[in-house]
Amino acid sequence: MIDLHTHTDQSDGTATPAALVAAAKALPLEALAITDHDTLAGYDIAAPRAAEAGLELICGIELSTRLEPKPEDRIPGKRAPSVHLLGYFIDAPSPGFREWIVGSQRSRHQRNLTLIARLNSLGVDITLDEVKVIGRNLTGRPHFARILLQKGYVKSNQEAFDKYLADDAEAGVERDEPTLFEAVKRVSEGGGLPVLAHPVRLLGGRDRAKLAVLLEELIAVGLRGIEVFHSEHTPEDSETFASLAHQFDLAVTGGSDYHGGNKPGIELGTGKGNLHLPYSVLEAIRENAAVAR
Ligand code: AMP
Ligand code: ZN
Ligand code: FE
Ligand code: FE
Asked: Are the CB atoms for 251 and 224 separated by under 8 Å?
């Protein structure tokens, strides 16, 4: 079994990179990809541990991007939807890629400062320092949600987003994020394999025709894969995405999106019980990636 979509505490997971490697080894997983949000730090820390443990570790990243909707799909006053892009095999990226992700980290920090100011102006007693105790070098909104919950401002993670943190919520902040197209180009030029993450979250979820049009446009700028298997996908979703992968000759990837205690109910390797990806999935990705386009 393999898992190609996981987060450590270097982004918004709860397991340290070393603990994640140990958990993967214990399961056992035959291969693990770390795909932290907008950072390679978790992979960098885990790599020597995985080598020691004899675990095949794949360098990945999950980039936060925005997809500018088509004019007919635009809703006035609504932000372009957030889309996640996975990048694989990016352990030795071309010069410039690491600097580029540092830009994303900076814009996140700026967003966090504005978010604190807005929460304070709404009467919420919260400081960036206390959020950073749990979020550390990649403090994100899930960390804000935990503090709001701890302090009793909300009763659930979802309420924290609905009331305060979501794009269209009271304290919501527009952060500078790269477009999906730019991110695909950056990963591709950086030497990585760009893969569309959990497509079920895209374009209202289950519109195969629209997704096909988008895939064609993304493939033109370098998209090479689609996440067919994911904890949030039903068997029917996976079937649809597998058929799109086949149609466009895209690599088929999958993973749990493990976040430890930050997403209870999602287990390493098996997700919500619906995953069990054989090693052959990784072999097929490598074969697909080896073909020059
Ligand atoms: P950030 O990268 O700091 O902007 O946080 C993004 C993360 O917040 C996403 O990966 C989700 O886990 C979570 N998130 C964003 N919007 C919502 C929402 N409306 N409801 C629940 N969780 C959300
Ligand atoms: Zn996450
Ligand atoms: Fe994601
Ligand atoms: Fe993820």
From this structure: yes
Q: How many domains does the chain have?
A: 2
* Residue 282 sits in the same domain as residue 138: no
pTM: 0.93
Q: Tally Cβ neighbours within 10 Å of residue 109.
A: 15
- pLDDT < 50 positions in the chain: none
Residue 245 is given by DSSP the state H
One-letter amino acid for residue 154 of the chain: V
Find out whether the beta carbon of 164 lies less than 6 Å from any atom of ligand 1: no
CA of 211 to the centre of ligand 3 (A): 17
Largest CA distance in the chain: 56
Q: Which domain holds residue 87?
A: 2-93+179-292
* Domain co-membership, 15 together with 82: yes
Ligand 1 atom with the smallest distance to the CA of 84 is: 10
Q: Which of 244-283 are b and which e, b meaning 16 or more Cβ less than 10 Å from the residue's Cβ?
A: bbeebebbbbbbbbbbbebbeebbbbbbeeebebeeebbe
pLDDT tens digits for 196-239? 999 999 987 778 999 999 999 999 999 999 999 999 999 999 99
